[in-house]
């Protein structure tokens, strides 16, 4: 079974961490990543903004950032695929705007971040299809 570590830098709502861990593990198992690990860090807008500024040169908060521990496209997948950082502040705003639960937004962002760790990007409408598929699927698990 896949291993998912959820590290809260900002206190998440009760029950979010176990649901996130279970759903992301199941998604990884479905994607045949059962022997891999991912770390999800739940943070604030302030922290994710610092990361985005340091790594992308953009001074703005965002919802999710992915940091792979390998070069995507390399045929060798390491045991730990990387880190997915999720801003709970932005996730809460987006959940409110879209009229759904914070937990659903965080799960969607975790799936999105995992898809990035696997080397995918969303530069075209066709590329978005994979993101939408994993984001929809994680909510079903």
Automatic annotation (TrEMBL):
Cofactor note: Binds 1 zinc ion.
Gene Ontology MF annotations: metalloendopeptidase activity; RNA endonuclease activity; zinc ion binding
Species of origin: Oceanithermus profundus (strain DSM 14977 / NBRC 100410 / VKM B-2274 / 506)
Class of enzymatic activity (EC top level): hydrolase
Any one GO BP annotation for this protein: rRNA processing
Family: Belongs to the endoribonuclease YbeY family.
Enzyme Commission code: 3.1.-.-
Cited Pfam families: YbeY
Function: Single strand-specific metallo-endoribonuclease involved in late-stage 70S ribosome quality control and in maturation of the 3' terminus of the 16S rRNA.
Binding site residues for Zn(2+): 112, 116, 122
Name of protein: Endoribonuclease YbeY
Signal peptide, first to last residue: none
Record-level GO cellular component terms: cytoplasm
Keyword Transferase: no
InterPro entries: MetalPrtase_cat_dom_sf_prd, YbeY
Compartments in which it is found: Cytoplasm
Domain of life: Bacteria
């Amino acid at each position: 079974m896949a291993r998912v570590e959820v590290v809260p830098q900002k206190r998440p709502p009760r029950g979010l961490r176990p649901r996130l861990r279970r759903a992301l593990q199941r998604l990884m198992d479905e994607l045949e990543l059962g022997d891999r690990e991912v770390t999800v860090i739940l943070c604030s807008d302030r922290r994710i903004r610092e990361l985005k500024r340091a790594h992308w040169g953009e001074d703005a908060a965002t919802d999710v950032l992915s940091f792979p521990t390998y070069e995507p496209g390399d045929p060798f997948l390491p045991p730990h695929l990387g880190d997915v950082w999720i801003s709970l502040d932005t996730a809460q705003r987006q959940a409110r705007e879209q009229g759904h639960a914070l937990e659903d937004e965080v799960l969607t962002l975790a799936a999105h971040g995992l898809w990035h760790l696997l080397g995918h990007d969303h530069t075209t409408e066709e590329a978005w299809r994979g993101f939408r598929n994993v984001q929809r699927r994680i909510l079903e698990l």
